[in-house]
Amino acid sequence: MKKEKVFKGIPACEGIGIGKVFLLEREEDLIIPIRRITKDAVKREMTKYKEALDATKKELINTKERILKVLGKQHIALVEAYVAILEDQLLTRDLVRMIEEELFSAEYALSVALNRVIQSFERVEDEYFRGRITDIRDVGRKLIRNLIGKERKDLSKVTKEAVVVAHTLNPHDIIILKEQKCSGFAVDVGTKTSHIALAAQGLEIPAVVGLKYITSESIEDDDEIIIDGYNGIVILNPELKVLQEYKQKYEKIIKEKEFLIKLKTLPSETIDHHRITLVSNIDSHREVEEVVNSSAEGIGLFRTEYHYIDNNELPSEKDLYEIYKYVAEKIYPYYVTIRTFDLGADKLSQLSLEGVVPEQCPALGLRGIRLALKYKNIFKTQIRSILRSSYKRNVRIMFPMVSDIKEVIEIKQLLEVVKQELKNEKIDFDKNIPVGVMIETPSAALTCDVIIDYVDFVSIGTNDLIQYTLAVDRLNENVAELYDPLHLSILRLIKYVVDYAHRKKKLVSICGEMAADLMFTKFFVGVGIDELSVPPAAVLKIKKAVRDINYSEAKEVVDEILTSHKDKEKIIQLLKE
Amino acid sequence: MIEQEFVIKNKLGLHAKPANEFVKRMSKYKSSIKIFKGDEVADARSILELLILAVACGEKIKVIVDGEDEQQVIQEIKDLIENKFYTEPI
Asked: How far apart are CA A418 and CA A387, in angstroms?
């Protein structure tokens, strides 16, 4: 019986793999001994090198189509970069000189030249650039293998029961592993953001990377092995107890996965078929892919502050338009609700705008729509980009921090001005773009009956609504306890907004943290909320909760909570039942 | 000879994909094209040298182009940097 051994690496892709070792390649396998050639052999050595180079290039290009199909376009460009690295003068200059003048064998010259390049990279301070060492090694190894005619083990021999252990793997290898349905892999190299890790995540193969020396250990084919991709742990020859524990974990994960996949295709409706639209919040256009995969039916809140704080200059209309267009196209046929910037003066001070001064109390100061209406040029640029991105008719526009009807009227006027400009410029946009405002101040909530006549929908931002209604800064430890989403005032305000909006047949959405909290789902369903906007990762969780609720019963619960004064424990109990 | 400074706008800086695009586009010209970051220098036709230069987002580079087609080169570099080397959706 072999002894159990635990290795700690970096978790690259979640999941558990249990199986037998398939040892692909040890690090030592590619150490090249010094070999000299005679002067007459130079020409032959150069030809050998060129042939290997061509073969490697061909191999790389052959993988392109497969990579495109499985991993997507972004990885393709990398293949081209690999080819460029192989032919780079920094590599070839040294190499050719070493063969022709110093009479070294091509493989030795290449390994020396590669090491020199790698050493230069090791001196780079920027971690991202230093990380390219893995790619260079990877592509260099391919070439060395072709030069010495040493074939690797055939990965297409990997079976479902196998866990691949290797010094390194390239994206193409990982595709083959996926096709072979391999249980997982463990490699010496790699970091959380390396291409190995990203490919594992893209293909959902349990993986641990950065194990450093696992291939140098006494590890053999067919040893029992467990990959714990959650904790970055690899267990070689596990004891029976450990093995059983992991087998149980594995079964549980598989069951949950199957359930979630089934849930994705089911509608988000209550037992008695009352539909709730589930949409997502995003902070950056980069998250849109995640939304598409989450089974959300659109984007209920696209926060746009990021593009203003991230740079030291204001984004141009073109910059913003490109971003919004990208999101609108990706989410099509669903819609995206773009909220104009909700910035405080503090965030804009770095842009050195005229008249921006530090404030005593930014939460009650020049923020959201107040700031936007003061700096109309910046605001207009954003509205123009949003309108321009609406040409597919799937964009809604929303305005933050409204506290007075006058603001809503002013916004609508400005919107008309911009629409007219675009019409004059013959630029296509959605002339009936749905307009909404955030209800996040008590004043907006309590005048919702008037505001609603000017808009197509409203979205309740619960975080701010609670803070402003209860007069509690929840980051202040002394009063954080008083921050209570279940305060009767909050529940009443939500009910008030829903009732007046529905009277005019307009939609109400919730987009604060409360929306993603299972404790409140029954309340939102019962009070008549039309749409819940939650982070992509929470969509399925909330969908499951909605599907377990009975709408008519939820309505009764909400009535009971709102009409009879109950303490918090009782409310929680009613919502949990 | 033309000398001009630029700021790299790509989110990850001049990383593998933009560097590759850069090399590809510069290879059709005859001029010598050198990229400086501080005291360090890279040949615009070497992806490895460009990567070792490690230009991050928001960092300044100085480009020195010398040759018969230097005007076109500087124009194309401007266009590339402006459009983030056509390698990002945005």
From this structure: 9
Would you say the C-alpha torsion B42, B47, B49, B51 has a positive or negative sign?
A: positive
What's the CA gap between A137 and A503, in Å, rounded?
66
Given a contact cutoff of 8 angstroms between Cβ atoms, the answer to whether B87 and B21 are in contact is: yes
How many Å lie between the alpha carbon of B19 and the closest alpha carbon of chain A? 8
Q: Is B27 within 8 Å of B85 (Cβ atoms)? A: no
Query: Cα(B38)–Cα(B59) distance, rounded to whole angstroms?
Result: 10
Domain boundaries, chain B: 2-86
Q: Is A13 a catalytic residue?
A: no
Beta carbons within 10 angstroms of residue B66's beta carbon: 13
Token pair recorded at residue A489 = 């005032």
Residues A77, B43: C-beta atoms closer than 8 Å: no
Give the architecture-level CATH label for domain B2-86: 2-Layer Sandwich (3.30)
Count how many residues are written for chain B: 90
Length of chain A measured in residues: 577
Domains and CATH numbers, chain A: 5-25+155-240 (3.50.30.10), 27-148 (1.10.274.10), 269-437+490-576 (3.20.20.60)
C-alpha–C-alpha distance, residues A29 and A150, integer Å? 9
Interface of B with A (CB under 8 A): 12-13, 15-17, 19-21, 23-24, 43, 45-49, 51-52, 54, 56, 58, 87, 89-90
- Inspect the interface and report whether the beta carbons of B47 and A84 lie closer than 8 Å: yes
Nearest to B20 among A77, A117, A285 (CB): A77
Task: Write the residue in B48, B87, B90 that is nearest to A85 by C-beta.
Answer: B48
Average pLDDT by consecutive 10-residue portion of chain A (577 residues)?
Answer: 88 93 80 87 92 90 77 73 90 91 92 91 85 83 84 84 90 86 92 81 89 85 94 94 95 87 91 96 88 93 86 84 95 96 73 69 87 92 96 96 96 97 96 96 97 97 94 83 91 97 97 91 96 92 94 95 84 87
Type of residue numbered A104? F
Cα–Cα dist A341/A562, whole Å: 34
- Determine the Cα–Cα distance for residues A330 and A324; give it in Å rounded to an integer: 10
Which of A81, A90, A312 comes nearest B17 by C-beta? A81
- For residue A377, report the phi and psi dihedrals to the nearest 5 degrees: -65, -45
Instruction: Give every CB contact of residue A88 below 8 A, 6+ residues apart in sequence.
Output: B46, B47, B48, B49
